[in-house]
Amino acid sequence: MTSLARRTSPAVSRILASLALAFGFVQAPARAQAQLDWIAPTSGVAVDVDAADNVFTATYEQALGSEIAVTKRDVHGNLLWQASIDQTNGTAWERASWLAVDGNGDVVVCGTLMSGFSNPVEAASVLLKFSANGAPQWRVVYESSFDGSSTRRCLIDDQNDIYVLGVGIGPAGLRTKVKKFSPSGAALWSYFDPAGIGAPVNFKFTPDGAIVITCRGVTGLINGYAKIDRNGNQLWSLAGVASPTVGDAAGDSLGNTYVVHGDPAASGSTVVRRLDPQGALVWQHAYPSIGFRVEVGTDDRPIVSGFPAAGAGAAFFKLAPNGALAWANLDADGPLALLLHSRMVLDGANNAYLSASTLSQMAVCKVNAAGTSAWTLTMPGSNTASLVVGHAPGSLFVVGGQTARIVEPVVNPDVRNFCQ
């Protein structure tokens, strides 16, 4: 139901519910129970799990001489180790950005070497690797010790090669950059955005074997997008997309990309574009919500999440490949009015999970694959930074002010995180 229905009489609410069903909107049924399995007082900016659902988090402290800290806990929340690599520079500190676990259970963390304390500046990009038992493997600072670069996200492919999204100095100056490293930390190639699509926000693997990149203008209300292959070759780019909100992009198995951005002509409206494998526009439609994130499920259909058209909360909608609205749930979290949305992921059954906050608590909201509300769970920790679906059925991990594991009744055993 939309937030409007919460403020109307029961009779009007029933009429609105009937209209909602007729137009593809879904009403939330009674919510299944999800439980907080454990919570640990470890903050973090990113989280990932290995095949045994050991959970890894990365955090940092703004203090001269400090290093990125990586923590590993077992599936029951027991601390296994915490590790860092001494960066030896007493006038700098490391700011963690993202974390990923490879097929061997080793963990990679990207970050930025910050210079100074009261008014720190971004000095260089940093990439670190630890073995599954916490032993430091290597630390790479690139391209120099002070080139003004920074990192945003990292991904690891099936060969354990590492891709890092950030900003770096390229042929056209300071631009969005993707750099690929081997499992041993050797640099393989660098891609620099040639079109000026903005500063990096996020990047993702696509089912067709490529990478999509989302950017935001440093000044102005503008988004940019690009798609590259895993050898660093650009397939297409889309620059200068007017948008009052930060956007997102995700790909399907056929090579299409779904791009999300705000509608500059209509407040409270989300624009979704479908681009073909060459980046040409297939269709573009607007929908009644403020969407920030998109993921494409195993059925090649996109799910968008964000705020309802007015006010706070968790709103979701799903589209058919032709852009028709499959369903919409614009009040998935009920009266909580969630804020500070941080990440959406889909599991193998195409259920959607969104991490967010009530400003005083961490929160996760789940919407079932059919569009009905499943549950919203809050827990101590102020705000969330990320979440990931575990390998064990009904297992979910979230990090922010603290690290926590959520368990839920198992309906479909295939619940591994599909969208990384």
Description of the structure:
The structure is a single chain. By secondary structure, this protein is mainly beta. It has one helix at 10-22; strands spanning 35-40, 46-49, 55-59, 69-73, 79-83, 92-101, 107-115, 121-130, 136-142, 150-156, 162-170, 173-181, 187-192, 199-205, 210-216, 222-229, 234-242, 248-251, 257-262, 270-275, 281-287, 290-296, 302-307, 315-319, 325-329, 339-346, 352-357, 361-367, 373-380, 384-389, 395-400, 403-407. The chain has a four-stranded antiparallel β-sheet with strand order 1-32-31-30, with no helix packed on it. A four-stranded antiparallel β-sheet has the order 2-3-4-5, with no helix packed on it. The longest helix is centred in the first third of the chain and has 13 residues, at 10-22. The model is unreliable at 1-31 and 413-420 (pLDDT under 50).
Task: Tell me briefly what this model is.
The protein has 420 residues and is mainly beta.
Features:
disordered C terminus, 4-stranded antiparallel β-sheet, 420 residues, 3% helix, 51% strand, 1 helix, mainly beta, single chain
Provide the spatial order of strands within the biggest beta sheet.
1-32-31-30
Quaternary class: single chain
Output the number of helix runs. 1
| CA-CA gap between termini | 29 Å
Strand residues, percent: over 45%
Q: State mean pLDDT (0 to 100 scale).
A: 91
Number of strands: 32
Helix content: under 10%
Q: Uncertain regions: pLDDT < 50 for 5+ in a row?
A: 1-31, 413-420
Task: Write down the overall geometry.
Answer: globular
The radius of gyration is 21 Å
Largest sheet: 4 strands, antiparallel
Structural class: mainly beta
